[in-house]
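Title: Comparing notes on inverse folding

I've been comparing how different people in this forum approach sequence design from structure. To keep things fair, I'm posting one structure and asking everyone to reply with a full sequence. Here's the target:
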């Protein structure tokens, strides 16, 4: 049984990553915390589906349709759908109606369903149409630029745009990076130092909360299917 994820970075300021996935006799997977919202497209048994996924603040178990192929777009932190504030999507999502094999409906218009290589073209069209928006202050903070507002204003705007605090986003991103390092064979002690965890128990707690795996499981590729590209086939 397998769940095969492939993820690539994007050169679009509006997109965090683009991923593809194929499931083979997998009924469920471990969901992983993410600070991003996304659009997910999948096909199964000749039918097409699409959904909006929200940021996830922890790990859990999610069902997986057997024999499905997926394309997903994870949007950059600070972006949002015009019709749904990102805070309303935290720890939830919604399936989109009126989906065909080649198109889907969003924000009152019909759009062409993207493949993994033209995801950015779809996002560009959504941005030009005003269907996807972002808070410029949050974008500046994420780039590391000195904010022009007070820390209190920055935090308020950040939470309004993302549904999360800056600290929560950093913790989630750090745990995901730690999982990738450990899956690549980096020793636990080195991951602790690289990512500035206090000690190994601190890292272990973060992995349990945000990834749903122990360091040993990540290094061995154990624990079943997981919604994370760890650079390998994860079997269950």
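Reply #1:
Here's my take.
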């Amino acid at each position: 049984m397998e769940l095969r994820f492939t993820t690539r970075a994007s050169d679009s300021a509006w997109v965090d990553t683009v991923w593809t996935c194929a499931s083979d006799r997998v009924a469920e997977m471990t969901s992983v915390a993410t600070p991003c919202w996304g659009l997910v497209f999948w096909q199964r048994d000749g039918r097409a589906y699409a959904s909006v996924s929200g940021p996830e603040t922890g790990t859990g178990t999610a069902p997986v349709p057997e024999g499905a192929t997926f394309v997903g777009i994870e949007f950059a932190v600070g972006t949002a759908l015009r019709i749904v504030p990102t805070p309303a999507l935290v720890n939830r999502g919604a399936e989109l109606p009126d989906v065909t094999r080649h198109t889907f409906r969003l924000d009152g218009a019909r759009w062409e369903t993207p493949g993994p290589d033209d995801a950015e073209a779809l996002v560009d069209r959504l941005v030009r149409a005003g269907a996807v928006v972002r808070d410029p202050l949050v974008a500046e903070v994420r780039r590391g630029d000195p904010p022009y507002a007070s820390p209190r204003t920055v935090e308020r705007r950040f939470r309004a745009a993302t549904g999360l605090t800056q600290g929560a986003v950093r913790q989630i991103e750090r745990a995901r990076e730690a999982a990738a390092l450990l899956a690549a064979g980096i020793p636990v002690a080195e991951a602790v130092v690289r990512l500035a965890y206090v000690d190994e128990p601190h890292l272990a707690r973060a992995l349990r909360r945000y990834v749903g795996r122990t360091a040993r499981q990540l290094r061995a590729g154990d624990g079943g299917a997981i919604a994370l590209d760890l650079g390998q086939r994860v079997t269950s």
